[in-house]
Design brief:
Ribose 5-phosphate Isomerase B, Chain: A; alpha/beta; five-stranded parallel sheet; single chain; 146 residues
């Protein structure tokens, strides 16, 4: 079955989102583009909550977000239970976010990276499995807020 991944961006991430939509399709992944659909000013949280909700409810196993720095999107997405949104600015960080933290939402800082770097980050994040083991214990502690 073809994987589907929700992807969203605010105005700062719109152009990079268009590039990554093509990259996902090239990899045989069906993106669910939740917006924005232009470079007109928008609020990042609107898109972060849509993508994070899909991951939180199990509608999607993982999602992708972009804004200028990646920070606003990650703050909003990480408010959802079970969502581990990671800002990645290079492929190594993206791979470690998956391997050690089982990140299920990738957040890209569109104003800080070029398209080739974004493609490499996406590839590292998509292709790196979660290592489990001691990292699973640590992930469980994230959810255990007492």
């Amino acid at each position: 079955m073809q994987e589907h991944i929700p992807i969203g961006a605010d105005h700062a991430g719109y152009e990079l989102k268009q590039i990554l939509l093509d990259e996902l399709r090239r990899r045989g992944i069906e993106p669910d583009d939740v917006g924005t659909h232009s470079t007109e000013s928008t609020d990042y949280a609107d898109y972060a909550h849509q993508v994070a909700k899909a991951v939180e409810t199990g509608e999607a196993a993982r999602g992708i977000l972009m804004c200028g720095t990646g920070l606003g999107m990650s703050y909003a997405a990480n408010r959802h239970p079970g969502v581990r949104a990671a800002v990645a600015w290079n492929p190594e960080v993206a791979a470690l976010s998956r391997e050690h933290n089982d990140a299920n939402v990738l957040v890209l800082p569109a104003r800080c990276i070029d398209p080739d770097t974004a493609r490499a980050i996406l590839a590292a994040w998509l292709d790196t499995p979660f290592a489990g083991g001691r990292h699973a214990r640590r992930i469980a502690k994230i959810e255990d807020v007492t």
